[in-house]
Amino acid sequence: MTLPTIIFGLVVAMLYGALYHFIRGGGGWRLLLFFGLSILGFAFGQLIGMWQGWAFLMLGSLNLGMGSVGSLLVLVAGEWLSRIDVKKESGV
Q1: How far apart are CA 31 and CA 22, in angstroms?
Q2: How far, in Å, CA of 50 to CA of 87, rounded?
Q3: CA-based R_g, the chain, Å
Q4: Taking the chain, what is the end-to-end CA distance rounded to the nearest angstrom?
Q5: Are 63 and 54 in contact (CB under 8 A)?
Q6: Rounded CA separation 53/55 (Å)
Q7: What are phi and psi of 2, to 5 degrees?
Q8: Exposure string (b/e) for 9-41, b if CB count within 10 Å is 16 or more?
Q9: What pLDDT was estimated at residue 27?
Q10: How confident is the model at residue 92 (pLDDT cuts 50, 70, 90)?
Q11: Phi-psi region for residue 44, left (φ > 0), alpha (ψ -120 to 50) or beta?
Q12: Is residue 90 pLDDT above 80, yes or no?
């Protein structure tokens, strides 16, 4: 994988994170969280696609389809986990 492919993959993943932030809302820290989750999910989807040999919406050596699916799954799961509220008082 070449450096321009990696940079393009990062740009696409960050666009997914920005779009998800636009839809779900939140502050600046949540935007950074979505950027990180999206990049992690895109890379995970790309690696799973390469490992299993799944080619879905290929753009050169970038598996855009699997990266998008991975990004979306990690964004949804990460946002759901970040909204869990921990009770600080004891129930005893």
Answers
A1: 9
A2: 42
A3: 16
A4: 56
A5: yes
A6: 6
A7: -90, 165
A8: beebbbebbeebbeeeebeeeebebbbebbbbb
A9: 86
A10: low
A11: alpha
A12: no
Say what the pLDDT of residue 83 is: 81
User: At which residue do the structure tokens 């999206």 appear?
Assistant: 38
Residues 6+ apart with CB under 8 A from 8: 59, 62
Q: Which of 4, 7, 80, 81 is nearest to 39 (CA)?
A: 7
Look at residue 87 in the predicted model and tell me its pLDDT: 76
Tell me the pTM. 0.84
* Alpha helix (H) residue ranges in the chain: 3-24, 28-52, 64-82
pLDDT of residue 73: 96
